[in-house]
Amino acid sequence: MIRVGLIGYGYWGPNLLRNFALAPQFQVVALAERKLESRHNASRNYSAVDVLEDASELIARSDIDAVVIATPLETHFTLTREALNRGKHVLVEKPISASTAEAEELVALARRVDRVLMVDHTFLFTGAVRAIRDVAKSGALGKICYFDSMRVNLGLFQPDVNCLWDLAPHDLSVIDYVLQDEIVAVEASGYCHVNHNMPDMVYLTLHYASDAIAHLNLSWMSPVKVRRFAIGGTRQMLIWDDLDHDQKIRIYNTGIEFHPDSERVTIIPQYRIGDIYSPRVPQQEALAGVVEHFANVISGKERSIMDGESALKVVRVLEQAQKRLEASLAAVAARRESRHAIDRKTGT
Predict the structure, then answer these.
(1) CA distance linking residue 155 with residue 295, whole number of Å
(2) DSSP structure string for 139-168
(3) What 3-state DSSP class applies to 203?
(4) How many whole angstroms separate alpha carbon 264 and alpha carbon 257?
(5) Is residue 158 helix, strand or coil?
(6) Taking a C-beta distance cutoff of 8 angstroms, is the pair 230, 250 a contact?
(7) 2-121+299-305 CATH, one of 3.30.559.30, 3.40.50.720, 3.40.640.10, 2.30.29.170
(8) Which of the following CATH numbers is that of domain 124-286+316-327: 3.10.350.10, 3.40.50.2300, 3.30.360.10, 3.40.50.150?
(9) Rounded to an integer, what distance in angstroms lies between the CA atom of residue 114 and that of residue 213?
(10) In terms of pTM, does the model score above 0.85?
(11) Which contacts qualify for 329-334: CB closer than 8 Å, 24 or more apart?
(12) Where are the domains of the chain?
């Protein structure tokens, strides 16, 4: 039995606590939460769990083997480092930290103290993503040419991170899990509609060493919620609609065929339109899979698919994208101010 403590009982914490409480491999010993009302709610729902205010008090307890961190991003590094230094295994909410330097330090520390460090990239445990990975590995899609993701909704506006850091980790972890390729270039642009210097719309483009490209449309400003993910291959194409409960995945026997230059009579390729297949996707709670995987990695039964190294790759991309995004926002703002200056001068 692995004795676990949870830090944070806000948006995601209740889901984590529920799944850890149901998992036979774990015993939830304690919970730490700063907000009084949330502590009262936790006490009512889980009377056998010690509810504390101070996270450090929880981490210091000798009757806890593993710590789960579901707190704002700015606290991830400090709490994770403290828990690892106390000899605890750690599962931390995504992203692992607010910078590459912090993530590198945590990965090195986990290796040094020989403790499991994992990041809760929940989508890796959905039946849909597992099916996509199997299809891609089988070669059915052919060579993967592109990923096109739309992850938009109205809010939730986060006080500590922009929509890039909030939404992109989901798609970045999925693409890395499926493609397992190196990113060679990053482009990003966006806009701040609500809070200055806090983009609520971001367009992110990633170029991979294999010539694949990924485009992510991320937004808190959409009137409808969309979770749509397309993969284009040379043999087949795939659509994953996470909000479609009946047919989450559709595989299209559709593609574009190019002939060698010596055989071409025009530059127009041939289009192949075939059948559509919707494989059965297991219906399971992804977070239960995360909890089981955490237990199996701690016990040495499995190798982690969302360890500190993979989490570090995500933060590296986020940090590069943030720099490109800031440069793009600054350039647009400068051009807009220049246009306004001309208008003021001409009286238009």
Answers:
(1) 33
(2) TTT-SEEEEEEEEEEE-PPPSSS-HHHHHH
(3) strand
(4) 11
(5) coil
(6) no
(7) 3.40.50.720
(8) 3.30.360.10
(9) 36
(10) yes
(11) 329/189, 329/190, 329/191, 329/192, 329/197, 329/199, 332/189
(12) 2-121+299-305, 124-286+316-327
Q: Are 110 and 116 in contact (CB under 8 A)?
A: yes
DSSP code of residue 197: T
Q: What is the DSSP code (8-state) at residue 305?
A: S
- The pLDDT profile of the chain, 348 residues, written as one tens digit per residue, is 999 999 999 999 999 999 999 999 999 999 999 999 999 999 999 999 999 999 999 999 999 999 999 999 999 999 999 999 999 999 999 999 999 999 999 999 999 999 999 999 999 999 999 999 999 999 999 999 999 999 999 988 887 899 999 999 999 999 999 999 999 999 999 999 998 889 999 999 999 999 999 999 999 999 999 999 999 999 999 999 999 988 999 999 977 666 666 665 556 666 667 789 999 888 889 999 999 999 999 999 999 999 999 999 999 999 999 999 999 999 988 888 777 777 777 776
Spatial neighbors of 266 by CB under 8 A, at least 6 apart, are: none
- The strand pair at 144-154 and 183-191 is best described as unpaired
Smallest CA-to-CA distance from 226 within 252, 244, 213, 246 is with 244
The phi and psi torsions of 157 (rounded to 5 degrees) equal -75, 125
Kindly give the pairing relationship between strand 2-7 and strand 66-69. parallel
Please give the single-letter amino acid code of residue 79: L
Q: Which two tokens stand for residue 180?
A: 């397992």
Tokens of 165: 């850091």
Secondary structure tally for the chain: helices H, strands E: 9, 16
